[in-house]
Amino acid sequence: MQLDPKVPGGPLAEKWSRYKRDQKLINPANKAKYTVIVVGTGLAGGSAAASLAELGYKVLSFCFQDSPRRAHSIAAQGGINAAKNYRNDGDSVYRLFYDTIKGGDFRSREANVHRLAEVSVNIIDQCVAQGVPFAREYGGLLDTRSFGGAQLQRTFYCRGQTGQQLLLGAYQALSRQIAAGGVTMFPRCEMLDLIAIDGKARGIVTRHLETGKIETFTADAVVLATGGYSNVFFLSTNAIGCNVSATYRAYKRGAAFANPCYTQIHPTCIPVAGDHQSKLTLMSESLRNDGRVWVPRNKSDIGKHPNEIPESARDYYLERKYPSFGNLAPRDIASRAAKEACDDGRGVGPGGLGVYLDFAAAIDKQGEARIREKYGNLFEMYERITAEDGYKQPMRIYPALHYTMGGLWVNYELMSNLPGLFVIGEANFSDHGANRLGASALMQGLADGYFVLPYTLTNWLAEQKPGVTPTDHLEFKRVEAEAGEKLKKLLAVKGKKTAIELHRELGHVMWENVGMARNKQSLEHAIQRIRELREEFWRNVNVTGTDADLNVALERANRVADYMEFGELLALDALTREESCGGHFRTEYQTVEGEAKRDDAHFCHVAAWEFTGIDKPPIRNEEPLGFETVKLTERSYK
Amino acid sequence: MKLTLYIWRQKSRTSGGQMVAYPLDGISPDMSFLEMLDVLNEQLVKKGEEPVAFDHDCREGICGSCSMMINGLAHGPERGTTTCQLHMRSFADGDAIYIEPWRAKAFPVIKDLVCDRSAFDRVIQAGGFVSVNTGGAPDGNALPVPKVDAERAMDAAECIGCGACVAACPNASAMLFLSAKVGHLGAMPQGQPERQTRVRAMVMQHDREGFGHCTNISECEAACPKEISVEFIAQLNRDFIGSTVNATVK
């Protein structure tokens, strides 16, 4: 497989401007002759669809939710990074670039990350112009706060609902284009498969979730903005509907899947309460600005009310182990430290799976009113779920699956190895390496959609003759029929277990063996178990109803079927990456202090998996990562 | 906990529906309301029956998907709470719980508890935005926004578009939803150039969709999971009248 990253020449800081200088253009009158499909309406998909329609392309936009406003970007709480240096605290494009590269444990592509840092400043301007109500200082200027992995205050926010406000900004821009006729919107329409002809993406197959109607759509280019795959772990902070199906089907049609083992476990989630749990709720990382993380120093104090444990008997382990970053250590490090404390038998709450996040000191210093102003909605959410008051006693938190850095492989232009297939936002692999820093997902989604794709897609389309494949083409008919047959097959099994039960079992295998700490033995065991579960799924799943109307059981089963295959790919990637880096922690590869130990000599590359057929081992391709500007060092937050 | 659920079951847009009783046992007070329905649905599938269809996604109170009348109250008995954030500890052992979809002419039922809220999208498409293309925006700090204005805008912008205001309103009016967007953009300097045309276009679309008129009953505010104030409706009325007068006098 050819993996040409197509990084432009020149010094790092000039690559993007050179690209834009040299890119090919399309005359405005001709843009309307090109049709672009955008799947997903989150920050990346929504902003891309709106921006492309503003340029004059004919855009078809799809989402499985009942409205494009409901994509899961809406749940992002904390904020969005930008190298504005409004604080005069020494920020710059280079520093944001460097923090992101280092945060990603030196496993991302320099040129992509630098471009991300460059356009970060435009995103804030754009969102302000849309009327996004960012938090303000009394003088009327934009307020910022700090986030994990940075020693600066570069995170812009809208209370605890930054994702919601940014998404509504993109949704409103999209709505404006829908009204203007530039975008045709297809809500409640789920992508079932990608149609590639002669190695080129030409269209998609969709199912209308209300009527069950399966249809094909044809276009000059297909953009996937379908998010991440955390739900392969069953319990995660993702929405129930988030799924891997679009990207995984694209993989099965020839697109390379890069670094699936890079999964991010978020340190501040509300702990699991029982078996009935359907999802985990995240508490924004911004809480770590003022909250102090601790567990009892002595096991004998477990079970006591936290307020009865004296200061001297508490272990503020993040402050102890990482004095310079303290409670703001990056997510992967904070998560592993929590797991260590719990493995040591000092965890709190049900099952000993929790640590305290304490606001007493911050409330003492700043007053409850100020804390309420900053995090009121998060405290409320916490109380609703746990029936405990975070102002009166420390919250209990535990790590949970949150974000996936891996995704479809893309080059500098955000195009996969399949010409005509572009992948943006969390769905691609490109910018966060092995670990994403807080407040960078919103930045990347909007960077891709507003400021990168409109340029790179134009450059690519300029070399293509406009004109779509007719939907009665044989390949369109074949893939459409295949998608329908798969649903019929699911309905015909009529076994004993529901798709949710089997999904929960898969998630358990993933969390126990491919979760926060992995090793050769656990990964081999996981692969074996996933194969057994997959076999059981197709023999024993029970899906009621029909495929001709709204059928929630069928939707779920169809997504779980893909997880049953994808989980194995994730475990295989983790098994073959014989090093630890960022969110990928192999217990065999750690420093004496228990930190992730990279192996730059052998693994300083992207692993891009190539599908070769059902039940055949996929091929592991490598894209070497060259670092011209930064020096590879051991990531230290001490 | 032991419960008896009475749930609205309806096959499709065109078919009739009815309340069906489902006894349910072994529910933990720590479950969320939707997790309780998950338990029921798992049992139904095991019996070979179709699960109850309901809209849901994020399950943390922000996407606005979940939408059900619980014992006659939109999103159930707790104030400022979406259905997905409602926990079973709000109910008592042995309770009978009546669960229905949103009922409004502009929100036709698609199946069981799922209704079609695309009217909301069309109301936003009519003018709920600031007409700026990507690129060319001035620096974010070029225009200071007084903190109190930004806060007021945010109070309105928190709307999640769930439709509880419509479901709770005896007139099935969407004025609170509408006023939240008009209020958000109207409080920001960026929203000023289109302030007058926006409010008229959105109100016209609202009426075209078949939502009822607002008669200041304020049920919407009580039902709103984000507790958006009816003050925004007052602001909307003011904007609407001013805008209409301006348009006529010209």
Please count the beta strands of chain B (DSSP E, at least 2 residues each): 7
Largest sheet of chain A: 5 strands, parallel
CATH superfamily of one domain in chain A, please? Succinate dehydrogenase/fumarate reductase flavoprotein, catalytic domain
Query: For the record, what CATH class of one domain in chain A applies?
Result: Alpha Beta
Number of helices of chain B: 8
Number of helices of chain A: 17
User: What value does the average pLDDT of chain B take?
Assistant: 97
**Overall mean pLDDT of chain A:** 96
The percent range for strand residues of chain A is 5-15%
If you compute it from the alpha carbons, what radius of gyration of chain A comes out, rounded to the nearest whole angstrom?
A: 24 Å
How many distinct domains of chain B?
A: 2
Q: What is the fold-level CATH name, i.e. the topology of the largest domain in chain B?
A: Fumarate Reductase Iron-sulfur Protein, Chain B, domain 2
CATH superfamily of the largest domain in chain B: Alpha-helical ferredoxin
The string of secondary-structure elements of chain B, in order, is EEHEEEEEHHHHHHH
Low-confidence stretches of chain B: none
Shape of chain B: elongated
For the secondary structure, the number of strands of chain A is 20
Name its key features.
heterodimer, A: 638 residues, Flavocytochrome C3, Chain A, domain 1, five-stranded parallel beta sheet, five-stranded antiparallel beta sheet, 20 strands, globular, B: 250 residues, alpha+beta, Fumarate Reductase Iron-sulfur Protein, Chain B, domain 2, five-stranded mixed beta sheet, two-stranded antiparallel ribbon
